[in-house]
Amino acid sequence: MSTMSARPASRRRQQPARLDWSLTPRGAVSGTVQGALALSAVAIGADIADLDPLIGVSATMAAATISVLTSFHAQRPPAALLYRMGCWLGAGGWLTWTMAGAGLREAVLTLLAGAGLAGGLAPLARSRKRAAAPGQELVLARTAQSAEQWQRRIQAVCRVPVTVTNVIAWPTGAGYDVHVDLPPTGATVDTIAGQSKALAAAARLPHGCGVEVLDGAHRGSVVLRVSTVNRLQERLPYPADLGTGASIYDPIGLGEFRDSSLAGICLREAATLAIGKRGSGKTNLLDVLTAGIGRCRDALVWHIDLNGGGLSQLWLTPWLEGRAPRPAVDWAAKDPEEALAMAEAAVSIVKDRKNSGAARKRAANTKLLPLDETLPELFIVVDEAAEIMKDGTATDVIRDLKAALEELQRIGRNEGGNVVVSSLRGAGGMIPVNVRKLSDVRIGMFVQDKSELDFLFEYDPGIDPADLTGPGSGFLRTDEESPRPFKAWELKPTDIEVQAVRIGQARPDLDERAQQIAGDAYANRYARMRRAFGSGSAANLPAPAPQRPLARPTPAPAASAPGTNPFEAWGGFQSPAPAAPANPFEAWGGLQIPAAPAAALDQTAPAEPARPLPEIVTRTLAAFAAARDDRMHSEPLAEALGFATPADLAEALRPYGITPMDQPFQRGGKARRGYALADVETAAERIGRGELPDAPETSA
Ligand SMILES: Nc1ncnc2c1ncn2[C@@H]1O[C@H](COP(=O)(O)OP(=O)(O)OP(=O)(O)O)[C@@H](O)[C@H]1O
């Protein structure tokens, strides 16, 4: 297959010029002259030796045959093969004719005419396959045009003289990757990523298609993932063949990226934050996560949904109806007290594992606690976490719940205590900064206000809500990578049913030591879950709230004592759903516990509208994101924001409580004063909460 390379002239000019004294032809003219002279010399030699003309015929045939074979071996195009054969037949025919006694004048004239013809047709001989310069990839011929277009396009839009080294079509046919080398003049991946929208527009990509800019093989290269067909518009059913027995050490699938590759996340050590407006597919996403984690032999899912428990209902139904031996979700809470008991239990378990897990770590010679079916990771999946985590008025229980979840996220990474948080919004005091910062996996489904995505993804320049196509599509960021558009698999109620039965059969139990630590709150949870989520008579009973404290660490776990309530011991599909105890408070040892305070959450109140950030604050955050630094000297920040002097910048930021740091710090070998990203973020949070008075907008 023929190829071509796309190299800029400038690079070619950099090659040092050398004199070449070899007889190797350098072009069509020199090649033709050399060939004609060589042929004349052979003809004169044959005349002097008085050779038989048949020798000329034999030599011609042999040369033509060798030419055909070598052309096939070199995969030359048909035109090159014909040209070479024509040359050998013409030269051989002329030689045979002269050996047979042609006149000198005729022989010379014919030789000149033949040489002229061969020289004129010489471009046909050129194989389109050229050797690449060292270190350069080749571009397939059918994409060579695309490569050249992209090279020109990037140069025009980004004003960077890049080299396109390869264009590779996706197997799905939905787009292609453009591999780009950056010039050694200071351009970085951010230089290109900042123009991804402009590149998509310049390439006239259809709506919903775009350009994602990813790191290349080395720091001086980038890969542009260009989608030309909007795969995100398609519905992607949950893969039916995903069985149980997976591991939390493997990626958990959420759906697909534009190129149909798996959108997977590694959750063993990573907390997750997902935001999205109502109807964006958040609940479906949490279902996909519940299924993905639930499939693991070394992980357990606990749910908190204080908006009526809708997240857990379908997952519990097969168990409630006696079609699964255990609930797929090991513990589900729909009221604040239950949720607090759960979160405190998880914190206690994690704290205990910090000591009790030491022997395991030593045995495995690792600092990260090894988890397996006997010691599973705990995931608390929280739907609509802003109701718990937002600043402002809250009951004591909610405040304690928030503190416990934050603590779990903060201390639980190593010991396998993990949090997945979803929220309608991520900014404006809805989700604490620390929760966002500690969430290595961030997912932004469709939101009303782009600033929510900007806030979640720290002003990554590649974010364009136009890339999203509707429910189930969003941006996914893992680690420090740029967020990528993806489409979540769709889990329909019947799929959840299938998964819930499978998981209920196969999932691990909480380890006995942890069960002891979690105490009665854990041991009796199934009874409360039946009342809270069950149908029929059990569901009609009021769900008693656990009296605090329920989950107190028990110092020395003794023999296992799970299954203390009658519902846990039934253990088989054939058992009918047990009737509720006569006294609804029985499960709490006969204690008369008042029902959960209804006012703990105003579940119907809509989320507060976001207070928009002043433009100068938004742009300051964006400047930090572009600089990929958490501190910036005043001069470059002023320049990035278009202020004439650092003093002008200071004046513009002061009304928002953003001031330069007291101490100078080193950047680029210079110690100067400047600004801290944390200060700007704190100010943004406070503005969102309405704590800072509106100040007159000052722009450059
Ligand atoms: N991945 C997906 N593919 C296709 N459709 C989806 C997907 N995810 C969600 N939907 C559809 O979008 C609608 C809303 O989904 P979902 O209930 O998950 O959104 P939500 O953000 O949780 O909304 P709410 O907060 O109002 O419950 C549903 O009708 C669902 O079928």
TrEMBL record:
PROSITE patterns: FTSK (PS50901). One of its GO terms (molecular function) is DNA binding. The keyword Nucleotide-binding applies. ATP binds at G276, K277, R278, G279, S280, G281, K282, T283. Keywords: ATP-binding, Nucleotide-binding. Gene3D superfamilies: P-loop containing nucleotide triphosphate hydrolases (3.40.50.300). Residues 536-585 are annotated as: Disordered. Residues 249-454 form the FtsK domain. Residues 557-566 have a biased composition (Low complexity). Residues 543-556 have a biased composition (Pro residues). This is S-DNA-T family DNA segregation ATPase FtsK/SpoIIIE.
